[in-house]
C-alpha cells in the first residue's frame, strides 16, 4: 500500500511508536515489535480482540476443512482417519472432459454478465442523478429496487410463465400476432442471454445504490465550476460525475472479477434442463451434482478450492492493475 | 500533573470502554448460544415432563413395566406441509403405545436426497434414519466402513420384523456383502408405477384400452386431436410427462417415470441393464436397437403434441397438475395414488369423473414392471449402543402390531373415526390434518385391508377392486429390475456423467434439436467405451455372485 504522508501531529506519532518514532522500530524483529506495540496499546488490542476472535473461530478454523480436498474423505472416518490421497482429486478433475466445458460456461456467463450487466447500474445511477429530488424520483427508485427482493425461485417461475412454449404469455401473444411460438427455455443459443437478462431485471436497480451514494458525495462546487466553463448536462455527467465515481467503479469491478468463477447457483439450477446442459453446467452445479447428490465430498471440495484459488488470483491481479493505472484498489 | 491525569483518564477510559465492549460481545455471544440451548433445554424439559407424568401414570397403572421410555431421534421424509408437530396427537399415542419419546425430523421429499447426504456427512446421524436409496454411494461406503449396525443377526428376535416384512424385501435390500444394514420399508412388489388412463376419455372417443405401444400411440393421438374434454378446443395433451435432471440416474433410460415406462415397454427391460443369455453378461439398454425405436416414437409423439410442450421445464407436481386439471389423459404412477393425489382434485374440475375412470393398464407390449419390494430402509448408526439398538428394533417391532399401526391409519377413536356397525368410519380430512399417513414414512406395514376398509363409497370400492385385479394380472408376468442393488465401483465414478449425457442427448432428440442420427453416433461410440465395458463387467460379476448365492 502506498504510504500516505502522515498528517498526524508529532505527539500522536510519538505516542504510537514511542520516542524515536518510526526509525527505531525498523531494526527489530516483527515479534518483538508486536509485543512492544501490544504493551503500549493494550486497550486498542483488547478492543479488537472480539473481532479477531470471531475471524479466527468462524473463518480460519473451519478453513482447515479444505484438507479433505487432499483426502479420500469419509464422514464416518472423519478428517483424522480418512486416507490421504494428495492431488488425486485435482488430477481427476482436470482430466475430466467436462472440465473445459465447465470452465467455458462459467467464464462465458460471467463475462457476458460483466459486459452487459455491469455498466447498467452506473448508467441508471447517472440517469437517476439527473432527476430532481422529489416524489417522482423516489417512486422510480423504489420500483427499481423491488425486483432485488424477489427470490430466484419466483423469477424462474415468472420466466416460465412468460416464455414457456406451451403456456407462456409471450408465446400466446406471438401466436395471436401470427408469429411462430418460440422455445427459448430449451434453446442452448439463448440460454446465456436469458440468464443475463434475468440478472439485469433483478439486480440492475439495486446495483445503483452504491453509485448513487458515490455521486451524492461529489462536491457541488465542481458542478458549478463546470457550468461556469460552459458544460451542459451531458458535459457535467462526463467530466464531473463519472470521474468522481471512478474509484467506486474500479473497486466494484475488482470485487466482481474476484467472483468470476462463481455463478449464481440458484439461478442456473432453476433454469437448468436437459436440452441446455451443454451451456448451463457450471462449476457450482457440478459441485452440487457430484458433491451433494453423489456424496463425493473430497472431489467437490477440490473443485471448490480450485475455484477459490482462481478467484483470489484474479482479485490480486486486477488490484495490481488498478493500482498501476493510479486507482486505489481494494487493499 | 494535568497531563498525567488526562493521560490516566484517557487510558483508563479506553480500557474501560474496551472491557465493556468485550464483555457485551462475549455476553451477547453467550446469551445467543445459551438462548439456543435454553430452547432445546426447554423442549427437552417439556418432553421430560410429559414422560415423567406419563411414567407416573403408567407406573401407577402398570407396575410391571418400569422401563424408562426409549428416547430416540428419527429422520424421515414427509410429503406434507406442515409436518406433524412434536405434540401431534397421533405421535403422542404411538409414543405411549411403544413406550418411547421420539424427536422426529421431518424432511420434505423434494430435498430428502440432499438433506440425507448432508446429514450423513455431518457425522451427527439420528438414531433411526430413513435411507431412501441404500445403494447410493454415500450410504454404501459408510455401511461398508461400519458406520451402521449390521442388523442381520438381531432381527430374528423380533417376530414382526421377520414375519411382517416379506423375505423379498429383506433379500433385495441387502448390501453387496449380503448383510442387512437397515430395516426395509416393505412395499408390495405388485405395486409399481405404470400407465393409468382416463377411462371416460377412452369411452367418449370410443377407444379400446391399448395393449401395445402402437395402440397407445393411437390413443394418445386421439386424446390430443379429438377433443376428449369436449370444450371444442384442441387444448389437451396425452401423456402427463416430464424429464427432470434429477431423474438422470434413477429412472429407466434417464427419462423420468412416464417416458421411461414407454422405453421399458419397447425394451421389455425394467432398469437399464438386460441379461443377455448368449453373451452371459449384462448389456446396457442404451445399446439396444429398441431404445432407438422408442426414441423415434417419442420424437414423433412430441412433434404431434402428445407430450407436454414444456417437457423439460416441468416438474413432477406440474405433470400431476396436467392430469388433475383435465389437460392430460394418461399418467404413470402407482394405483394407490388414486384418491390421495388425483381423483379427488379431478372430481372438482370434472364433476362426472368417477373413481373407476382412473383406469390402470395391465401391460404394454406384454411388459409391466415388478416392484423391488421395499422403499428405502431404516438404518441405525453405530453411535447408538447395542442395548439401545435392541430397544429401537423392539420399538419398530411393536409399532408394526396392528393396534399400534392402526393409530396412524385410522387415528384415535372419537377424534378421527367412529365405529358404526362394527366398522371404523374415518374422517379422512381430520386424519390428514393430523398427518396420520406421515407416520407410514417411519413404519409401514403391508396391509391389504386398509384401503378397502377406508373406502367411502361403492364407486371407490369398485375402483380399488379393479386396480387390485389389474395388479394381480400384471404380477404373473411383471419384470423385476435385475440390476437393482448391484454394485460397481466404476459405475459410482463414471455412471452419473454417462447417465447425464444420455438424458441430455435423448432430451434434445425428442425436442427435435438434434437428429436421430446423433443417437446412432453416440451409441457407436458408447459400444467401445472403456468405462462402460468395465461397469458392465463389474455388474455382471456382482449379478452372477448374487444369483449364485440365491440358488445355493
Task: Give the topology.
The complex is a heterodimer of chains A (331) and B (552).
Chain A (H helix, E strand, L loop, with lengths): L9 H8 L3 H6 L3 H11 L1 H22 L14 H4 L6 H8 L2 H20 L1 H12 L4 H11 L6 H12 L5 H8 L11 H29 L3 H9 L4 H12 L1 H13 L6 H7 L5 H4 L2 H11 L3 H28 L7
Helix pairs in contact in A: 6-19, 7-12, 8-12, 9-12, 13-14, 15-19, 18-19
Chain B lengths: L1 H60 L8 E9 L10 H10 L1 E9 L3 H11 L5 E4 L5 H8 L14 H6 L2 H6 L10 E4 L7 E5 H6 L8 H13 L11 E3 L16 H12 L5 E4 L4 E4 L4 H15 L12 H9 L3 E6 L3 H13 L8 E3 L13 E6 L6 H14 L2 H9 L6 E4 L2 E4 L1 H6 L15 H6 L3 H20 L11 H22 L6 H10 L3 H22 L1
Parallel strand pairs in B: 1-2, 1-3, 6-9
Antiparallel strand pairs in B: 3-11, 4-11, 5-9, 5-10, 7-8, 12-13
Keywords (chain A): Membrane, Transmembrane, Transmembrane helix, Transport
Membrane topology (chain A): Multi-pass membrane protein
Protein name (chain A): Putative aldouronate transport system permease protein
Please tag this protein with its features.
heterodimer, A: 331 residues, mainly alpha, MetI-like fold, 3 domains, 19 helices, disordered N terminus, B: 552 residues, alpha/beta, D-Maltodextrin-Binding Protein, domain 2, 2 domains, 5-stranded mixed sheet, 13 strands, globular, Putative aldouronate transport system permease protein (chain A), transmembrane helix (chain A), MetI-like (chain A)
What would your notes on this structure say?
The complex is a heterodimer of chains A (331) and B (552). Chain A contains 19 helices and no strands. With 331 residues, chain A is an all-alpha fold. Chain A has 3 domains: 40 residues, no CATH class; 45 residues, no CATH class; 237 residues, MetI-like fold (Orthogonal Bundle), CATH 1.10.3720. In chain A, helix 6 packs across helix 19, helix 7 crosses helix 12 and helix 15 packs antiparallel against helix 19. The radius of gyration of chain A is 26 Å and the shape is flat. The termini of chain B are far apart. In chain B, strand 1, helix 2 and strand 2 form a beta-alpha-beta unit. Chain B is globular, with a radius of gyration of 28 Å. The N terminus of chain B is likely disordered. Chain B has 20 helices and 13 strands. The chains are: A mainly alpha (331), B alpha/beta (552). Chain B: This is Putative aldouronate transport system substrate-binding protein. Chain B: Keywords: Signal. Chain B: It comes from Paenibacillus phyllosphaerae. Chain A: It is a multi-pass membrane protein.
